Amino acid sequence: MDHVTHCRFLGARIGIVLGLAIAAGAVAAQDDGIDWVTVGDAGNRDTLPHEVPRWSDLEVGGVDYEYRIGRTELTTRQHFEYVQAYWPYVPLDERRGHSFTGQWIGNAGSLENPQYYIRSGAADRPTDLSWRHAARLANWLHNGKVEEQWAFEDGAYDTSTFGDNSDGTFTDQLEHHPDARYWIPTLDEYAKAMFWDPDKDGEGGYWRYPHSKDTAPISGAPWEGGETDAGAHPDDFPPLDAGSYPWAASPWGLLGGSGGATEWTEFAPPGNYDRVWHGSLEYGSDHDFQDRLDYWKIGSPRFSMGVRFAAAVPAPATSVPFAFVLGMTIRKRRQPTVRPRPAAPSPGYPSNRADLAG
Question: Residue 16: phi, psi to the nearest 5?
Fold first, then answer.
């Protein structure tokens, strides 16, 4: 090969490798459709008794790593995408089930050939689905929304473990895989994102309610200065989109901690009967209790509730150095080292959380 040909060949290979590197970066940065908030201040403490007066021995909220969490609950639009992709693998008798479609997705077709649609005006409202379907949706996100059955059945949660015993307990995997990219937030992750303020009282602390206050959010319409759609409203009060109260945010910028949809967490109290959820529902009563940091409830994973997903913090996007690409091209015998992505640590749960089963 003469010198000119060799240079052209080398340049072509460099261009190809650079193009592949840029394409790989584009895949890594692909938009998943979720507005993420990064929760920092790794190593924050758990709650203290005076911060949870109705449950003074509860210790929750300490997280030793950074993570991301959705700014709002999952919306009907995002849920609809999952329903459209997953329905071919859903048993016939479940295709119209509320735990699969939630309240804002209808079916104008048959069970064999469903024609799903979003009810008028509901695209951006908080949706609801069962814990198990939320887990499958997390798997789908983890696998890049590939529309094949395997992409829904593992990734964050191994759905082959999902089942029920005759005594009412379940066999579901309790916590997400350590290397999951998306998952249902743990009890600590949810509590920290909703209530922990690194600057509260100058040294960091927990607010009692999820809108950065120690008093309950004001029930009312956004255009009337309200802070939540939970509570009593006039009969003509319309359902609201997720994030309709931007001035009622958590210290990290999360919206909808009150009202909208009650929200799943990953945590299952000892006994494996239920999963823990938090927060009030639109039009729901007693939001002054249900929105509190020291008030948590449990429900069957078959129940239909809202969810906001947690996710790993992606590595910073960097350009591929030219010298590195050139080295890969010239030193053909030298192979790059592929290092596995470090697993996110899985927090332990204090024993006093067994009380959640009561």
Answer: -65, -45
Identify whether the C-beta of residue 261 lies closer than 8 Å to the C-beta of residue 127: yes
Q: What is the pLDDT of residues 201-260, one digit of tens each?
A: 999 999 999 999 999 999 999 999 999 999 877 777 889 999 999 999 999 999 999 999
pLDDT in tens, 126-164: 999 999 999 999 999 999 999 999 999 999 999 999 999
| Residue 291 falls inside a structural domain | no
28 vs 190: CA distance, rounded Å: 26
Scanning the chain, the segments in alpha helix (DSSP H) are 3-28, 76-86, 98-101, 131-142, 150-153, 187-195, 287-290, 322-330
Mean pLDDT for the chain overall: 84
Burial 64-100 (b: 16+ CB within 10 A, else e): eeebbbbbbbbbbbbbbebbebbbeebeeeebbbebb
Dist. CA 358–CA 355, nearest whole Å: 5
Identify the domain containing residue 82 by its residue range. Answer: 31-207+303-357
Nearest to 251 by CA among 208, 290, 293, 194: 194
* Residue 185 in domain: yes
Bridge partners of 67?
Answer: 39
Size of the chain in residues: 358
Residue 136 in any domain: the answer is: yes
| In a domain? residue 239 | no
End-to-end CA distance of the chain: 79
DSSP 232-259: ---TTPPP--TT--TTS--TT----SSS
Predicted model pTM: 0.82
In this predicted structure, the answer to whether residue 354 has a pLDDT above a threshold of 90 is no
Number of domains comprising the chain: 1
